[in-house]
C-alpha cells in the first residue's frame, strides 16, 4: 500500500545533543510492502531528495504508534532501529486505512488479496500529486465540480456572490485562512467555531448587517483561542455583536465602512488586540473598557467624535450599590474565568443574558447593578499610532459602566454630569 503524505523524520539519537536535529515536513511516499528478497514486511520512504527510498523493517521494530491526532490526519510511528520517528501528515481517510493495514500486518492477519506483494512499482510521489494546501475558487462552477480537498489550509472564495457558506468548509480541520469576501452571505453556521486551526477570517463586503443577534453564536468555541484576524468591513452593520468579546485571541479587527454607532461594552477585554480599524462609521463615543487597550494602531477616522474636553467639578460620589443577586455573582464568575458556554450547557435565556453583559473599566462584567458615567479618553493612552479625520482631536467621549464605588473613585470618574446609578 502506498500512502501519499508529508513526513518529518526525527532522529531520537540526537535528542540530548545541544541542538536537536529535526527536519521539516517534506512531500513523500510511504510504502507498506514486502521486501522482494526476504519476503518480510517493511516500510519504504521515498521523497524528491531520496528517490531510491529508505527501508525500515517492521517485524519487532515498531516501538510505538502515536495516533492521538489521527482524526486530524496526523500520526507518528516510532522505530527501534534506527531510532527514527516518522511524523506523518496525510488525508484522514487514507492514513486510517494505512494504520488498519499496518495493524493487520503486526497481528499477522493480512491476506494476499489485501496486500500487493511486490514493491518494485513503488516510486516517489510527483509534486503535482500531493493534496493541495491552498485553493482559490474563481467561479461557482469550479466550486461545485472540484469539491474541497481536506488538506486545505488556505481557501479563497471571493467574488462568487454566494448567499451562504457551503457546509463542506466545516470539514476542513486544517484550515488556517478563509476568505469569503465580496459575496452575499448574511450569517455563518455555528459549527464553524469547531475549526480549531482557523486564524484569519475575511468577511468583507457581505451582508452581515442583516444578521440577527442570535446568528452571531459562531463567535466562540475553538475560535476563542485560534482566531487572530477578523475582517468585517463594508457589511452595512449597525452594531458589533456582543459575542465578539469571546474571541480572546484577536490581534487585528477591521470594521471600516459600516454604520456603527457604538462598540460592544466589553471590547476592551480583548487583551491580545493590537490593531483596530473602524473608520467611516457613525461612532460618537467609546465604551469605558477600552481604557485597557494597548494598541499598536487605531483608526477612528470619519466618525462623529468631537474634541470637547469636559471641566472637572467637585467629585460627586454616587450612593453605594445594592448587593448583587446570586445569579449575577455566578454570571460574573463565569465571564471572568472565560468559561465556554452554549445551548447544550445553558438555557437560551441565560446565554442571551450573559451576552448582554456590561463591562467595567476594570474588566469585570456587570448586569443589573452598575454606575454609568461619561468620561473623556485620551487616544494616545491606548494606542501608539492614531488616525482621525479631524485635526486636533486627541480626546473622545466614553460611556463608562462601573461595577463598584471603588472603581469609580480609583479611576477618578467624577467629571461632568451626575452619574447614573442602577
From TrEMBL:
Q: Which UniProt keywords apply?
A: Leucine-rich repeat, Nucleus, Repeat
Q: Kindly indicate whether the keyword Repeat belongs to this entry.
A: yes
Gene3D superfamilies in the cross-refs: Ribonuclease Inhibitor
Pfam families per the UniProt record, alphabetical: LRR_1, LRR_4, PH_LRR1
**Does this UniProt record's set of keywords contain Nucleus?**
yes
Q: The PIF1/LRR1 pleckstrin homology domain covers which part of the protein?
A: 1-112
Cite the PANTHER family for this sequence: LEUCINE-RICH REPEAT PROTEIN 1, PTHR48051
Q: What is this protein called?
A: Leucine-rich repeat protein 1
Q: List the source organism.
A: Nicrophorus vespilloides
List the top taxonomic levels of the source.
Answer: Eukaryota, Metazoa, Ecdysozoa, Arthropoda, Hexapoda
Q: Which gene encodes it?
A: LOC108567856
Amino acid at each position: 500500500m502506498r500512502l501519499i503524505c508529508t513526513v518529518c523524520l526525527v532522529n531520537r539519537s540526537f535528542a540530548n545533543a545541544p541542538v536537536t536535529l529535526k527536519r521539516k515536513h517534506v512531500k513523500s511516499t510511504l510504502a507498506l510492502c514486502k521486501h522482494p528478497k526476504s519476503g518480510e514486511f517493511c516500510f519504504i520512504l521515498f521523497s524528491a531528495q531520496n528517490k531510491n527510498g529508505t527501508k525500515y523493517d517492521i517485524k519487532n521494530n515498531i516501538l510505538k504508534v502515536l495516533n492521538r491526532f489521527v482524526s486530524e490526519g496526523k500520526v507518528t510511528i516510532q522505530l527501534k532501529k534506527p531510532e527514527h520517528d516518522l511524523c506523518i501528515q496525510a488525508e484522514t481517510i487514507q492514513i486510517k486505512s494505512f494504520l488498519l493495514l499496518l495493524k493487520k500486518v503486526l497481528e499477522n492477519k493480512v491476506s494476499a488479496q489485501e496486500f500487493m506483494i511486490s514493491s518494485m512499482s513503488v516510486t516517489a510521489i510527483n509534486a503535482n500529486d500531493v493534496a493541495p494546501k491552498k485553493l482559490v475558487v474563481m467561479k461557482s462552477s469550479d466550486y461545485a465540480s472540484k469539491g474541497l480537498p481536506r488538506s486545505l489550509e488556505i481557501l479563497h472564495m471571493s467574488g462568487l456572490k454566494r448567499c451562504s457558506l457551503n457546509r463542506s468548509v466545516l470539514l476542513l480541520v486544517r484550515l488556517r485562512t478563509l476568505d469569503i469576501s465580496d459575496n452575499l452571505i448574511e450569517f455563518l453556521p455555528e459549527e464553524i467555531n469547531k475549526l480549531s486551526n482557523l486564524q484569519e477570517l475575511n468577511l468583507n463586503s457581505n451582508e452581515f448587517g442583516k444578521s440577527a443577534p442570535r446568528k452571531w453564536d459562531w463567535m466562540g468555541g475553538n475560535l476563542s483561542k485560534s482566531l487572530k484576524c477578523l475582517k468585517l468591513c463594508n457589511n452595512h452593520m449597525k452594531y458589533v455583536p456582543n459575542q465578539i468579546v469571546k474571541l480572546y485571541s484577536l490581534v487585528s479587527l477591521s470594521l471600516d465602512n459600516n454604520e456603527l454607532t457604538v462598540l460592544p461594552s466589553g471590547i476592551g477585554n480583548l487583551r491580545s488586540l493590537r490593531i483596530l480599524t473602524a473608520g467611516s462609521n457613525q461612532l460618537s463615543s467609546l465604551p469605558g473598557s477600552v481604557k485597557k487597550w494597548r494598541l499598536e494602531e487605531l483608526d477612528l477616522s470619519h466618525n462623529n467624535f468631537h474634541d470637547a474636553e469636559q471641566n472637572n467639578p467637585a467629585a460627586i460620589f454616587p450612593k453605594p450599590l445594592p448587593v448583587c443577586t446570586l445569579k449575577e455573582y455566578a454570571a460574573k464568575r463565569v465571564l471572568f474565568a472565560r468559561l465556554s458556554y452554549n445551548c447544550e450547557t445553558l438555557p437560551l435565556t441565560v446565554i442571551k443574558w450573559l451576552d448582554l453583559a456590561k463591562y467595567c473599566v476594570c474588566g469585570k462584567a456587570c448586569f443589573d447593578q452598575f454606575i454609568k458615567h461619561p468620561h473623556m479618553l485620551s487616544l494616545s493612552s491606548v494606542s501608539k499610532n492614531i488616525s482621525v479625520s479631524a485635526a486636533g482631536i486627541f480626546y473622545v467621549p466614553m460611556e463608562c459602566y462601573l461595577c463598584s464605588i471603588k472603581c469609580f473613585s480609583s479611576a477618578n470618574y467624577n467629571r461632568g454630569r451626575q452619574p447614573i446609578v442602577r
